[in-house]
Amino acid sequence: MNKSILVTGGAGYIGSHVCKALADKGYRPITFDNLSKGHEWAVQWGPLVKGDIHNTDVLMSAFQEYQPVSVMHFAASIEVGESVADPASYYYNNVSGSLNLVRCMLAAGIDKLVFSSTAATYGIPQSKYIDETHPQQPINPYGMSKLMVERIITDCGHANGLQHIFLRYFNACGADAENTIGESHSPESHLIPIIMQAAGGQRDKLFIFGDDYGTPDGTCLRDYIHVTDLASAHILALEALLNGAGSNVFNLGNGKGYSVLEILNAAEAVTGKKIPREIHDRREGDPPILVASSEKAKKTLGWKPKKNLEDILSSAWRWHCKQNGITQQ
Ligand code: UDP
Fold first, then answer.
1. Pocket of ligand 1 (CB under 6 A)
2. Mind telling me the catalytic residues?
3. Whole-model pTM above 0.85?
4. Does 182 fall in a domain?
């Protein structure tokens, strides 16, 4: 019998790509998702338990039924701008939901957890590349909510033997090579899918949030990492835990910063479309630069990200075309 892994948020963007990678590796992903943002069509590699991480009864019965050897925890609210406007929901969904999940895991005797964390826990960078020792001083409620969960899990690691790996992602993007899953939020707030909507005519234009940052072209720099590369890191992290490697934390990025304008120009080249854009005010809560050092994941986990910016944009465009019935030239 394949080992079961309970994946909260497995119907979401990163979670569904990880479920696919788990199945490819011979695990049985059990998706636990309330489908508030996730999609039933994205659950293709194992059963779906429809439930909310606040719901102790549903969680406990899923643990009882499937006997997972580990949990991978993705279920969360994930938008910086929304978190600034509505922090209470972010602390409720992300902190209180995760706390309930952890309490249920402890009650069920499940002692391994891979937690989906974020570069937003770091705040304003104090060095060109951010490594895992960088101070964590988030500047938005989203980042703070994830940091609070890291703290809860760390404390339960010390007190209760909960072994955990935190994966702090930089900017997840792109779509699966087989084009059966990809990024699909409603409403969309992330740069690359919005660019694709503007390229495909599903939106009039892209607003560039600020061109007066202290960066070479004035727009924010981010480290864009393909979701398939993220998924492979999750498998390595899970296997490290299952092999008794103990708790750890890893940044996941490509180590290269691209500005919003650079992404736009590269997307025009990949899609062959002119992408209308307009300069807008800065978005509150945005650090000017976030670029990872992922040396630790490479050394310790043997992780090798394989996809470059062109792979990211071409897979995102292919997925966008499929979702919107656009025939690709
Ligand atoms: N961005 C933008 N216009 C948009 C969406 C995003 O200029 O419509 C910028 C945003 O300010 C940030 C970068 O693109 O500098 C990446 O934003 P995204 O929301 O994709 O990810 P985040 O970095 O917030 O996790």
1. 80, 171, 189-191, 194, 206-209, 220, 222, 260, 283, 286
2. 142
3. yes
4. no
